[in-house]
# Entry
Amino acid sequence: MTSTRIVAGSLAAVALTCLVFTITPSLDLRVASIFALGNDQFVGQTPLGNALRRLFYWTPFCLFAVMLALHAMRRFMRSKVWAPTGVGLIFMALSLAIGPGLLVNTLLKDHSHRPRPYQVTQFGGDQAFKPFYRFDGECRRNCSFVSGEGAEAFWTLAPAVLVPLPWRPIAIAAALVFGTATSLLRIAFGGHFLSDSILAGLSTWLVILACWWLVTRLFGVRPDGVV
# Structure
């Protein structure tokens, strides 16, 4: 999976995203304005939106638990149902811990200082808008850049790439739809800008690629069990 073409394409996508939002930082404000109601209120802030947010938040962790259960059933109960290998479980756990865990929620969100859309003056807040590359905002911790829930949602690509063919493309497509839906909901909540969401997904994907390469080198076998 970690072919030169995939890695190069992923890095190019990151570079292009950064270039677009550096040249036109107002794009973040224009997209956020679609969902803004004024006075720091956004269209996603409804009972239905809150219910969906809770569902989307827990889905990646439930998926990981299902993968653990499938592995246990196959190993200890001789189940014939497909299950990830032990190396696959290590790959999923490592990518979840490093990507959404360490990189996003520990390093970036607590040190980027970027105010969320509902906090900026353009939408009724009291803080100045900052482009994604400016780390001098007024937010102190758990800030807008990048999207933590978006990163967790796009992490579902990790279990998706373990699914055997011919179902793998379907699993990858489902993970991309889920990550996109979660990110759009967070934008609709006024919790994140578009650049926060796109870069959350791309950074998580790069971590997945790195973990695939690392686990393969350490154990001498691919996480999906293919020789």
